[in-house]
Amino acid sequence: MIKSMTAYACNEAEISDLTINCEIRSVNHRYSDVSLKLPEALRFMETDLRALLSAHIKRGKLECSISYKKPAKQGQGFIVNHDALAVLLAATEQIEIRMMTPQPFSALDVLAFPGILQEPSTDKTKLNEGVTQLVKQTVGDLLIVRAREGAQLKLLVESRCQKVHEFAATASQRIPAVMLQIRNKLKDKVVELVAQPDFDRLEQELLFLIQKLDVSEELDRLTTHAKEVLRVLNEEEPAGKRLDFLMQELNREANTLGSKSVDTQISQIAIELKVLIEQMREQIQNIE
Fold first, then answer.
1. What is the per-residue pLDDT across 119-143, written as a single tens digit (0 to 9) for each?
2. For the whole model, what pTM was predicted?
3. Which CATH number fits domain 7-73+126-148: 3.30.420, 2.30.130, 3.30.230, 3.40.1000?
């Protein structure tokens, strides 16, 4: 299934006395790159959550941000870490002894110091299960968005592949007339310049020249690569890298077609093919 690498999903859940928010966004990237932002209270879950995200995202840069807030409850007070407070005050007294003019500080200054206020204890097992379920739900929503956008990308690439087939068929139909035109033009030129031309030798040289200018192989390979693109688009596995390689091969054949062409119409077809291939390449950059 074709999936886009660009998507966004966000969910929120009430777990214990916390409101947990999970936000995931992904963008295109050559490889799989998972970035996880967690508050300190949830840091113990980092390894499991990273493994969960990596299992669902095969390619792309993914950023997962989890935050929480506590609802305000009437009558809820502060929990002071008295051990940390004692250590802080003792350290403050030692510092003030060595200061020329100690500065006074308030209780609010002390409360703002890290570690003085304690968070209420939370059941880590329940918190782990709740956050994991929230992340799974958000990843599921993200994958739905990626699949929906991937379906649109697939349609765009398929329509351009069909145009590649049409242009290649038009050029193939044009080849016999172009080869005959080259043969007649060169033969007339030789007859005009040489009184008694060696027509056997001339035919050999014309055959050699026509083989050099023949673009049938390039058109066959263009058609074959376009068919392979359509086949890969219907595979279940991630196809972005494979499709990117096929775009390089299509572009190579289109360049060769343009350089070998001696016909205005086929040269124009080569230009149109390069435009189509570049449009497909830009879309494929966003496919997983």
1. 666 678 888 899 999 999 999 999 9
2. 0.71
3. 3.30.230
